[in-house]
Amino acid sequence: MPAKLLSCLSPLQVFETNYPDLNLTVVFSNGCKLTLLPDTEDFELPYWELFTPDKMLLKLGPDAIWSYQSANLPENEE
User: Fold this and answer.
1) Which domain holds residue 31?
2) Which residues of the chain have pLDDT under 50?
3) In sequence order, which residues have a C-beta less than 8 Å from that of residue 21 and are 6 or more positions away?
4) Beta-carbon count within 10 A of 70 CB
5) Number of domains the chain is built from
6) Is 34 exposed, middle or buried (0-12, 13-18, 19+ CB in 10 A)?
7) What predicted TM-score, i.e. pTM, was given to this entire model?
């Protein structure tokens, strides 16, 4: 993993989503920012997924449909 990427792995400071664009922005305590932009042309895949330390999965999309579930579930059990 590149050193610059490793330096951005610090505790989360801000976790933000916006409607209707459905972007996800994560700001880390060291000032690094990650912004995920949904691909609204792909109707089969989620726009973004976030895995939590407690083995949960937060998923958005397609459309403005959210889910929060165990990350250990097989896809057909969502």
Assistant:
1) 3-77
2) 1, 3
3) 37, 38
4) 11
5) 1
6) exposed
7) 0.67
* CA 23 to chain CA mean position, Å: 9
What six digits make up the tokens of 38? Answer: 């949904």
Residue type, 59: K
DSSP string, 1-50: --HHHHHT---EEEEEE-TTT--EEEEETTS-EEEE---TT-SSS-SEEE
Rounded Cα distance, 11 and 8, in Å = 9
- Residue 19 CA to residue 9 CA, distance in Å, equals 27
> Which pair of tokens denotes residue 7?
């330096």
pLDDT digits (tens, 9 = 90+) for 55-65: 999 999 888 88
Going by C-alpha positions, the residue among 69, 64, 71 that lies closest to residue 23 is: 64
Whether residue 9 contacts residue 29, with contact meaning beta carbons closer than 8 Å, is answered with: no
